[in-house]
Amino acid sequence: MERTGITPAQPVAADPPPSARPSSPADVLPWRSLLVLGGGTLLMVTAEMLPTAVLEQMSTGLGVAESSTGLLVSVWAAVVVVLSFPLVRLTRGRDRRAVIAGGLAVLAASSALTALAPTFQLAVGARILGAAAVGLLWATTNAHVADLVPDRLLGRAVAVVLGGATLGMVVGTPLARLVADAAGWRAAFWALAVLGLLGAVAVRLVVARATPPDRPGAAPGGGDLAGAPRRGRGPLLVVTALVALVLVGHYGAYTYITRLTEAPAEALPGGMSTLLLVFGLASAAGVVLAGRLGDRSGPALVVSVAATALTVLGLGAVGGHPAVGIAVVVAWGVVSGGMPPFAQTLILRLAGPERRSFAGALIPVLFNGGIAVGAALASLVVARSGVTALPPLAAAVVGAAAVGLALSLRRRA
I want to staple 155 with a disulfide (CB 3.0 to 4.6 A). Which of 334, 345, 379, 386 is the partner? Predict the structure, then answer.
């Protein structure tokens, strides 16, 4: 996308240390801060998906059906959608580093309470606490990352932090399963609790303070905001709605990835587990690619969404030849992996410094809402017409969103 005209965010105030600071700090990424924040997103995603990794053990331990344990993930997403905005309002004006550290501490407490829970009902309560913390964490982390770097580095910074979220799926959840297999499902939650506390300490010690871009009379970069026009929410909300539509189609198909890719999985050593790992690694590659293209987040988002529509459509033909099926899955992982960084960067740029907290809260609501609606609609399609009907419908939804994004961004050019 062409530059949106948003004034660059104020450079970081305390990262890196003076002894290592180059002559122009705004020209480099605050790597230590971003890596710590990326570690936080890894913990957030691992916490969200952990019940799926220990589904059987946790169900047996709590004395409930696996379908009930699976609802812990759905409840989590719903809480994030409902509570993100109220919690952002409640913490508005506070040091974002303190909010992030506090959120990780609450997430650690939630994990510890889940590990201690003697009943399913208490486990649900502990998970609700964790979901509320994560909703606030996502919103605050998004806004703080945008304040840490100038606009031209925003795409790279977002990709670094979201790389942690991708690792949560590729590495965090499998490692949690290994811990559960070795020491029980409660040990996996205890391990997450300890890591959450360590993450909170790291945030307080390492993450830089960003100079607020909306302080009275000052603009990012040292200018004056007096008389500067406020951006309307219209373009931001339009792009957000279209990205949500993308997620409905993409996650609708992803919900049934194990059914759609059975044929190519059989050709791989390890079967479906290997194929899912391949998809996760391809998604990680997409995040890395997004970091290199983040300065043109608008056009890059349109291309990645259009390519996602094509690869989802290709899922209908993966049964023809294993090599073709594996290639489609890899391509799907790469192009869809780049979507979240491109979308998040574009949304934060459209919001500008004056609506950064609003946009930061909008992003987790958008992603969790898209996942929930996509999975629900996909289930209806599969129940009525079978899994083979899903790829063309999901591709049509994603393709329509790609057209809408292209038209919306063209009007802004």
Answer: 345
Judge contact between 339 and 305, C-beta under 8 A. yes
Q: Give me 278's structure tokens.
A: 């391949």
The torsion angles phi and psi of 12, rounded to 5 degrees, stand at -65, 155
Residue among 157, 156, 176 nearest 167 (CA): 176
Q: What percent of the chain has pLDDT over 90?
A: 31
**Quick one: DSSP state of residue 15?**
S
Q: What is the tens place of the pLDDT at every residue in 210-255?
A: 765 444 333 333 333 333 344 557 788 888 889 989 999 998 888 7
Question: What is the distance in angstroms between the CA of the first residue and the CA of the last residue of the chain?
Answer: 8
**Of 170, 220, 207, 405, residue with least CA distance to 306:** 405
Nearest to 308 by CA among 289, 334, 327: 334
Identify whether the C-beta of residue 248 lies closer than 8 Å to the C-beta of residue 377.
yes
pLDDT in tens, 279-302: 888 988 888 888 777 567 788 899
How far is it, in rounded angstroms, from Cα 356 to Cα 214?
10
Q: Are 136 and 81 in contact (CB under 8 A)?
A: no
Least confident window among 38-42, 102-106, 223-227: 223-227
For 164-209, give the DSSP string.
Answer: HHHHIIIIIHHHHHHHHHHH-HHHHHHHHHHHHHHHHHHHHHHSPP
Alpha-carbon distance 78 to 312, whole Å?
26
Helices 31-53 and 185-206: angle between axes, nearest 10 degrees = 160
CA distances from 252 to 106, 167, 279, 360, 379 (A): 31, 22, 16, 24, 8
Beta bridge partners of 97: none
Please give the DSSP secondary-structure letter assigned to residue 215.
Answer: S
CA 369 to mean position of chain CA atoms: 12
How far, in Å, CA of 38 to CA of 161, rounded? 4
Say what the alpha-carbon torsion angle 180, 186, 188, 193 is, to the nearest 10 degrees.
180
Q: Phi first, then psi: give them for residue 407, nearest 5 degrees.
A: -65, -40
Owner of token pair 């806004």: 143
Q: Is the dihedral of CA 91, 97, 100, 106 positive or negative?
A: negative
